[in-house]
Design goal:
heterodimer, A: alpha+beta, B: alpha+beta, 11-stranded antiparallel sheet, 8 helices
Chain lengths: 291, 480
């Protein structure tokens, strides 16, 4: 069994942490020594993090609100709790909560700004006067063009960005190509993106292929719930109806103070909620990029 | 044949169950038709490393720029992957210089469908009759073999349990052997015998009781070993033991030393002079008996045969863990006193001579079949080279004992491999690392894949076919 792995990416700037399903890219800005120390803190925090989650995995995969011990597990539970009684498990916030936990270690003396990108769920750290721009790839496959970007400033309340959709690594009960959420923490963004993406849906529509989650991944916390595996080209009216369903959920969550903003993408159409400072960015590197 | 079973992936602590064609939570490890396709880092061992666990990404810089490669780095088969069953060079064929000689190490992971595990359990307890079936989770996975020198031997796995029995039998056998080889504790039951928990390098737990130490010998042997040391310090010594309780004044060793009679009376079956069977029942008390008060085995003292007020008596168990010192009073009753300092040393000597009770697990595999084709185009030459001790075989860097006779049948102490070195495929079979090291000239002469030889620098720079990184670890047991 392999343990946590720590390496610097070939660019020499970004730290890469990997352990099992957790894959984090970290970039901190500051003096070289401050960055080195921040990376050492991140590596130390990462050690044992997966083991601690695995120790409570059955409870983390449960839709019931169960008592949890670890700080990351508790952050996950806290992030998903506001969405009950709808179906949600703490696993809906795992990527964001891990990003938040590592970010708490990265932030420190001499670090002016930083991001922890855990497979697209991102925790941010900003000091006064600083901002970070995230490119978000949120167009449908056949329409992939220039990505949009969002810029988060120090004064914004946003410190977490997360994206969910059926094309992503995690399963979705809905059909959104992507829902990107801005929230106060990455864990909150992660949970809300999952729920909004689930809400972008056309129940019973013939063009949507669904499959029990556990037939794709035997261990899925979604069990036999039908997750989306393919979406045919939809009529424009259907796209709008699905997006509006998601929009209603997003507006509700924003009204309850759970999110700051959201962008919902489906087959080339876009809806935004709240502070979603989208702007087209020049062509960039193929991967999601911050800086 | 399609294997439709889910496999438990052991690549990370999540331990996903992965169905055929699926991937685990990481999306990187998949079940490819019954086999976990893994891309673990290959393990590189060094004796000079102060701290282990460093990952060396192939084809990329280290995150903190430190020197990654100690001079004595040894690439192991752990995580190397295998080319089985293809006729192509092994995953890594590494050139190196050892004591000025050009050497080649062929590194691979091998799949062992016929392998077994030999277990030595240090306990005098009767675990079960010879030939009795040994079970894990109720499935037959092996049998009890001979008891030798205070240890009980089990023989587990092998072709008949792995692939010759029912499907659950093969699966459970494979899982039990994998756990044992990776140093985990495995609960076993023996038909008409005990339940025993076995873990390599740890004390066995027999019927819920953890063994601590092996007795230095039986009570009679203990008398034989230490009688001379007691002479002049005490008038009588009884070594209490579940097998044979020894009495120094009556024992041959005492006679040789001119020990006087003491009028002691032992309740038990006398075997030969100074040796008694069945002084008690087996238990958790003194010397593996049920005794909590050793005086329970003594009858009245006989003044006609030497008993007298002031006579001194040491009672001690075969491990030196229990002891008591007595002096006879006017009524010839033993009264307990503190152990005199001079006798304390003799008790400590017994204690010091006891070995800790351990379980030893030896993996037994055969490096035959097409695996050898990854090493050389003429496989039998590899066999002969190993048999002639020209090629040194190691498993995860650990030395192997090569059985004389046909083939490359080897045994290795699993505690000498880095943790988690063994894997499995649901065939079922174990996966174990193998390295063949031999002089470069000999390697070329036996038809080795000369064109595939690379230096470690080249491997680190380019990466391997399967492994994308190396994990630098301290050699297990390397001197501090």
């Amino acid at each position: 069994m392999s343990g946590a792995q720590v390496s610097l990416l070939p660019d020499g700037r970004r730290l890469h942490l990997n352990h099992g399903p957790m894959d984090l890219i970290i970039e901190a800005y500051g003096t070289p020594q401050a960055v080195h120390l921040a990376y050492a803190r991140a590596a130390a925090r990462f050690e044992g993090l997966l083991e601690a989650l695995v120790a409570e995995l059955p409870d983390l995969r449960s839709p019931e609100a169960l008592p949890l011990r670890g700080p990351v597990a508790q952050a996950m539970a806290q992030a998903v709790a506001p969405f009950r009684p709808d179906f949600i498990t703490p696993m809906a916030a795992v990527a964001g909560a891990v990003a938040d936990a590592v970010m708490a270690a990265v932030a420190g003396a001499g670090i002016t700004r930083a991001y922890v990108n855990n497979g697209g769920d991102i925790a941010l750290h900003l000091t006064p006067g600083q901002n970070l721009t995230a490119a978000i790839v949120a167009k449908a496959g056949w329409q992939a063009g220039r990505p949009d970007s969002v810029t988060i400033r120090y004064a914004d309340r946003v410190r977490g960005i997360a994206t969910s959709g059926w094309r992503g690594r995690s399963f979705s009960l809905g059909i959104a190509d992507a829902v990107t959420v801005l929230a106060r923490t990455a864990a909150m963004a992660d949970a809300a993106a999952t729920m909004i993406a689930n809400a972008v849906d056309l129940p019973g529509h013939q063009g949507i292929t669904r499959c029990p989650a556990d037939q794709i991944k035997a261990d899925s916390d979604l069990g036999a719930r039908a997750v989306t595996v393919a979406v045919a080209r939809l009529a424009p009216g259907d796209v709008g109806r699905a997006l509006d369903a998601g929009l209603a959920a997003a507006n509700t969550f924003r009204g309850r103070g759970l999110i700051e903003g959201a962008a919902l993408f489906l087959q080339g159409e876009l809806r935004t909620v709240g502070a979603m400072p989208l702007a087209a960015v020049p062509p960039l590197t193929p991967e999601t990029c911050l800086g | 044949m399609q294997n439709l079973e889910k496999i438990r992936c052991d690549a990370c602590p999540v331990m996903c169950y992965i169905a055929p064609g699926q991937t685990g939570a990481c999306d990187r490890y998949g079940n490819d038709n019954g086999r976990i396709v893994r891309s673990d880092p290959v393990t590189i061992l060094s004796r000079t490393l102060e701290q282990g666990g460093r990952l060396v990404p192939f084809a990329g810089p280290a995150w903190d720029g430190e020197i990654l490669r100690p001079a004595d780095a040894f690439v192991t088969g752990i995580g190397a992957g295998t080319t089985y069953p293809d006729y192509k060079p092994a995953p890594f064929i590494v050139s190196s210089e050892i004591d000025g000689a050009d050497m080649v190490t062929v590194v691979t992971e091998a799949i062992f469908s016929y392998c077994g595990v030999k277990v030595k359990i240090d306990t005098d307890r009767f675990l079960g009759p010879e030939g009795a079936t040994v079970r894990a989770e109720g499935e037959a996975i092996g049998h009890v073999t001979t008891a030798e020198y205070g240890s009980q031997m089990l023989s587990l796995g092998g072709v008949h349990h792995l692939t010759g029995g029912s499907k659950p039998e093969g699966r459970v056998t494979c899982a039990a052997m994998l756990a044992l080889c990776n140093g985990e504790a495995v609960a076993l039951t023996i038909d008409a015998g005990s339940a025993v928990t076995v873990q390599a390098g740890h004390a066995p737990v027999v019927d819920g009781v953890r063994e601590r130490r092996m007795r230095v010998g039986c009570g009679s042997a203990t008398i034989g070993m230490f009688a001379a040391g007691w002479r002049g310090l005490v008038d009588e010594v009884v070594v209490v033991d579940d097998h044979i309780t020894g009495v120094v004044s009556e024992h041959q060793a005492g006679k040789v030393l001119g020990w006087e009679e003491t009028g002691i009376k032992i309740k038990g079956s006398k075997s030969t002079p100074g040796r008694y069977f069945r002084v008690s029942e087996p238990g958790l008390g003194w010397g593996g008996t049920r005794l909590t008060d050793p005086l329970d085995i003594l009858g009245p003292w006989n003044p006609k045969k030497g008993a007298r007020p002031g006579l001194t008596l040491l009672m001690v168990s075969t491990t030196g863990e229990e002891y008591a010192y007595y002096v006879l009073n006017e009524a010839l009753e033993p009264i307990r006193h503190d152990l005199p300092a001079a006798l304390q040393a003799t008790v400590r000597l017994i204690d010091e001579n006891c070995e800790p009770s351990l379980c030893t697990v030896l993996f037994l595999g055969g490096a035959g079949g097409s695996l050898r084709a990854g090493v050389t185009r003429n496989p039998v030459r590899l066999t002969r080279s190993v048999q002639a001790h020209e090629t040194r075989l190691t498993s995860g860097g650990a030395p192997c004992y090569i059985w004389p006779g046909g083939g490359i049948t080897f045994m290795v102490d699993v505690t000498r491999l880095p943790p988690g070195a063994f894997g499995y495929v649901p065939t079922p079979a174990l996966v174990a690392p193998l390295e063949f090291t031999l002089p470069r000239a000999a390697y070329v002469a036996l038809g080795g894949h000369e064109g595939a030889i690379q230096s470690l620098e080249q491997i680190v720079a380019k990466g391997g076919e399967y492994a994308t990184a190396g994990r630098l670890d301290r050699w297990p047991g390397a001197q501090e």
